[in-house]
Amino acid sequence: MKPIQVGLLGIGTVGSGTFNVLTRNQEEIRRRAGRGIEITMVADLNVERAREIVGDRARVVADAREIIANPEIDIVIELIGGYGIARALVLEAISAGKHVVTANKALLAVHGTEIFAAASAKGVMVAFEAAVAGGIPIIKALREGLTANQVQWVAGIINGTTNFILSEMRDKGLDFDVVLKEAQRLGYAEADPTFDIEGVDAAHKATLMSALAFGIPVQFDKAHVEGITKLAAADIRYAEQLGYRIKLLGIAKRRDDVGGIELRVHPTLVPAKRLIANVEGAMNAVMVQGDAVGTTLYYGKGAGSEPTASAVIADLVDITRLHTADPDHRVPHLAFQADELRDTPVLPISEIRTAFYLRLRVADQKGVLSAITAILAASDISIDAVLQRESNEGEHQTDVIILTHETQEGAMRDALAQMQALPTVLAPIVSLRKEELA
Length: 438
Known about the structure:
Helix 1 crosses helix 13, helix 5 runs parallel beside helix 6 and helix 8 packs across helix 9. The strands form two sheets. Strands 7, 8, 9, 10, 11, 12, 13, 14, 15, 16 and 17 form an eleven-stranded mixed β-sheet that branches. The chain has a six-stranded parallel β-sheet with strand order 3-2-1-4-5-6, with helices on both faces. The protein is α/β, with parallel strands linked by helices. It has three domains: about 170 residues, NAD(P)-binding Rossmann-like Domain (Rossmann fold); about 160 residues, Dihydrodipicolinate Reductase, domain 2, CATH 3.30.360.10; about 80 residues, 2-Layer Sandwich (Alpha-Beta Plaits).
């Protein structure tokens, strides 16, 4: 049987890994897919570099539209990234009747509804395993492996850069700015790390996971996004003393009590005994809670040339197996049939429910703690634990650390405003969310 012919748009880190892994494991992949899969055309603006990678094994062009126009190409892999030209090329490939594989989480999180609708109308597939958590097959798990379950929540460490930074801050007791520079020196962080450290990259991925978990359209604009730039080494240290570790989590949670979905990315205290709390360095991990299966954990490399290539090629194999099938009998793009997606609202951050960690710099005098606890009690916020640091000799101020039980975010915000107004609270209050993930 004639091999499936693939066109590759962009042969950078992931593109070169995809080409190399597909070439190296070609026979094993053929045995799994039922026929050969070959990248026969590559488009890259740096034609000379692309030719150095592929040699004479594929035709190299500078114009991606030559691949889209080629009637011999069955599948287009988009690895250009970004929202602009990538969106245009993906839609053009779909219009030309090509199946698409992409690792572009930003594109799908923002324009996924449009892209999936176009693909469904044309009867082609858009596969995106590599868009979330690199080599971890979390998309396939949510879309197929957990089909029997009503998913309750998904929580993931889905950005390796921020996890590396937080791990280093905890291990070495250093502040964020110092560790960021080291991460850049080692290549874990980009020269402009904004998307990573401000939580945007994780929010793109959490948006896709929420759609797969709950059968809703992708709604990146509704996600609440906070990064790690304001985290202090002191809070990581205090969290450790209380039995927690701080991780940047992407969280999507079903709220049947109010008929909504929580979709949020922020630094989160997680009990140190949880497996996900012990995911260190640049590794990724995703937890999924299903009503039938309970809690499952998916762990591995969330980025890198060949780990991400592993996911890209898995998508190529899936499309090779299914491209002749009736489109109505294929696995839906977002796990649920397109006409079964629901308009369940994504809740505003003020309506989420979670527990909190609070750090207050206060005057070291009588009555301070009672005034703080009175405000929390009046807001119906119960306290789980309190840690008060002894002030050093000659100091007249100290830190009070409070862990609360679960409460509504809006109530906590009101309480924080009242506590901040106390004359004995001497600095901005640090507030972090806490999840038990059990």
